[in-house]
Amino acid sequence: QKEVEQNSGPLSVPEGAIASLNCTYSDRGSQSFFWYRQYSGKSPELIMFIYSNGDKEDGRFTAQLNKASQYVSLLIRDSQPSDSATYLCAVMGSQGNLIFGKGTKLSVKP
Amino acid sequence: DADVTQTPRNRITKTGKRIMLECSQTKGHDRMYWYRQDPGLGLRLIYYSFDVKDINKGEISDGYSVSRQAQAKFSLSLESAIPNQTALYFCATEGGAYSTDTQYFGPGTRLTVL
Description:
The structure holds two protein chains of two kinds.
Chain A: E1 4-6, E2 11-14, E3 19-25, E4 33-38, E5 45-50, E6 54-58, E7 61-66, E8 71-76, E9 85-92, E10 98-100, E11 104-109
Parallel strand pairs in A: 2-11
Antiparallel strand pairs in A: 1-3, 3-8, 4-5, 4-9, 6-7, 7-8, 9-10, 9-11
Chain B: E1 4-7, E2 10-13, E3 19-25, E4 31-38, E5 42-51, E6 54-57, E7 65-70, E8 73-78, E9 87-94, E10 104-105, E11 109-113
Parallel strand pairs in B: 2-11
Antiparallel strand pairs in B: 1-3, 3-8, 4-5, 4-9, 5-6, 7-8, 9-10, 9-11
């Protein structure tokens, strides 16, 4: 069973700080990695995807991928209360379907 | 208009009833998915379809069936609902000429089985 592991949290950071969300995966052959944000009772929405080792930046968000360590992370700079949500890490499995972690709940305190 | 729609949005039913959840998309995607989400268990894949003639079981297909009526429509059925099928159900789509493997989710259906 391919797995994607995330710390369930909650992760609490003050407004303006950097939030760091981490994810590990078991399938060394995985090639595509995704971060979704989900507000309570709502559907997941894509924040970023990353395919290559290294960093990928989009506004306040930076995804980091290290395939050798089977590790992907999401950094949120200048965190805002509106960033409070559950963040889901997802990895493309060998059969072409996404495998989701259970999510990390982030709370940004004003 | 939303690209991925789900009906109904909320449903309360009784044990043993047959229930169908419907998903439609206007994104032109070939691939469609059904997930359920339970507190503490994350998103779990029920069934997925890569085109109209292709249906695949996911992680938790027991007690569910699906029908891909057209490229744009993918329905999930519970033949005889039971209380532990109470959950939030999401449909998702993916594909297209410039696919990045990104899945786009519908708004969800909250199902309660009494």
